[in-house]
Design goal:
484 residues; mainly alpha; 17 helices
Length: 484
Amino acid sequence: MNDAESSDKNELIESDLIDYGSTNEDNIPTKSLEEIYTIIGVGKAQYIYWVFLSIICLFDTAEMVVISTIIPLLRCEWGLSVVWETLINTNVYFFSALGGALFAKLPDIYGRKKMLSISLAFLFIATASSALAQNKVQFFLVRCVVGLCMGITFPTCIAFSTEITKSSHREVGPMSIVLFATLGSFLTAVLAFLLLNSIGWRWFILVMVSPVALCFIVLICFLPESPRYLAVSGKKKEALSALHQMAELNNTNLPEQINITVHSDQDLGSISDILKSDFRKETILLSVMYFGNLLIIFGTQVFFPLALYSGFCGGQGDPPVHKCVKIQQDSLLQLSIITFSAALSGVLGYAAAMTLGRNISFKVFSTCSFVVTFFLFKCFSKLATVGLFFLIKLLQISHYTVSLIVVPELYPTTFRNTALGFINSWGKLGGVVGAGAVYALYYYRPIFIVVMFSGSAFLVMVSSWVWSKETKKVIMTDVREECT
């Protein structure tokens, strides 16, 4: 193999992957997972998976909007102090980070479907229980359980969505999840505008959590396990059964018996693998990007309702007063406008990743976001402030979308979910810092919130410019190199 061929060996060239005439001594065709997915094609099976997994992740961002929207009502009902508001607003993010760090490896060990089912069941019970909480302590404790569950569901859905199609279409899953998740924040804000002041915060929470119960039933009864996970964990018979179900839904013919050429690896969910020399640089850079991205995304999500309810003008003037305030309908409408930017950002991030590539997209979005955050230091009209927050969220979530596409492309199936959970936990820690700092500073020195956002945008920009790996045409791997 010459140097040119060697440099291109990881590119998605189907003729290098597929040997259509390969059979074993029993005359049973031998095919790689990439070849089998090429035969199955992209159709109804993938669309069902992508939509279903995306609906699950819708709740992840909806949670962020729900809490930031109802916190003034909790302040009035329970007399919350600034400290308690900070705890209630950040505990879900903190325990989500903890859940991702501690438990995201379990889907790599026991399977995507099993762990997703368990986490969805507890997620529904805990969230519904929070609507019945009689005091702030009960509410705080059940929301901790919600966070632990979310630390498992989100990275598992991302990994799952990339493992049910061939490598050339793997970006569609994360893009769909981000699109639905960001639509979730927009729809939550719209529902808050329509329902919150009329039905109260308890019924509002129950309305928002109801899709989780439906997702649990569909997952248990209808969707098979990830074929890639089954194959690399040595369950090739079950993997072939899942592949046949997908082929049937797509109306394609798949031979009844196939030898799947994938190496099994019993060392699943190893967190040490993501920090080895092959992945160390990328793992650190992605963790920094996630931290900075979610600090700004979650921080602005908490900050903007406060700015609408209590006022903010470039950090100038006296700090706002912490008091019981009634939520105005026009404020909820403006919140809906801001969250609509999140819905657009999923499409923008995906389009940029597919046209410009992951590497250039990182640099473009992070640089623009860093520049725009500096305008927060100036005092604008309320309409201009709404537009400014709209643009910041659009750029930041677009960058986040690209990073969600990159992570599954970078790590093999054997510890893909572990890597997603580890990196996402740093993002959720960023959310804790962002939301917590907003509450800690807003009623004392709000100008420092803008400094924090600008510093985080700078951190993301530096990490993006240091990033050098392009994963756009790299074939997804299933096991570590030493196992092949």
